[in-house]
Amino acid sequence: MIKRFFKYVLFLNLLLTAFAYKSSAQTVQAEAKLDRFAIKIGEQTQLHLIARFHANDKVEFPKLTDTISGKIQIVSSKADTLFDKDDVSLKTIRHNYTITAFDSGDYVIPSYAFHTQGGDVNTQPLKLTVATVIVDTTKAAYDIKQPLAISYTFWDWLRDNWVWIVSVLAVALIIAGIIYYLKKRPKKETVVEPPAPVVPPHIIALQKLTAINDKKLWQQEQTKQYHTELTDVIREYLESRYSIQAMEQTSDEIFASLRYMEISDENRNALRQVLILADLVKFAKEKPLPFENEQSMDNAVAFVKKTQQVFQPPVAKEEDKK
After folding, report:
1. pLDDT tens track for 68-84
2. CA–CA separation, 266 and 108 (whole Å)
3. Which pTM was predicted?
4. Among 115, 80, 121, 114, which residue's Cα sits nearest to residue 97?
5. Where are the domains of the chain?
6. Which residues pair with 53 in a beta bridge?
7. 26-131 sits in which CATH class?
């Protein structure tokens, strides 16, 4: 009789425990939401994973990686907790994910499992549509607008170039001091070596462009490296030819620095094509067509040749000829 009583008590405990687990699972509500179910390439939307449960319960949220379904990228995430106004024993935890995609198509956000004491609670799958940007190919292409012209006074120029002015004055004082010292010191007979030949900037640039062309980088799927080396040569040439800090400037800043230089519209357009296409390749992952890669090289060579400075080698003195 006693054994039967203990068996009965044990059976009731097991039944109550199972009922408690089942109740715990039923009190946990989990769902997934999207702010927008359709976006364009590069746009963003919010994915919300939400769980509502008793404050004493333990709920384990699903762990998301950097991508969803292989194509949807998670840009950022954050979590927040809210308690029910009418019943503070109930709370809601939301995990908010900012997502985006760069390939068009229909994507399925899978069902996610929330682990609870009473078992897993699954969300419903969601569908996200990513549409391409519609381009009207019937309309003509327009050139990039020129920078707006603004008034530029002498004081503005002085403020922008005071470092150069001070540097020039300092160099002039140093040179004057050296000349004064050389004139006052006792003269000594020295053997004057012929100066090393000065290579003009356009010759250096053309030689480097030829070397890049011989590497055949874009033909070997190294398009980004090709445009990087190409624009580096052009920027070095611009620094030597027009005395601007082209290596440290963006493309827009380069055009702004050249706005008062005597450069024809044809040459400006050639330079613009080279720099803008390179920016698209390096920062927007653009994949130019073969003729566009060749056009960048042709425009770079043409720009250097047509803007080269007339170079006159130093004339040897009569004493040097002797």
Report:
1. 888 899 999 999 888 87
2. 50
3. 0.39
4. 80
5. 26-131, 201-309
6. 91
7. mainly beta
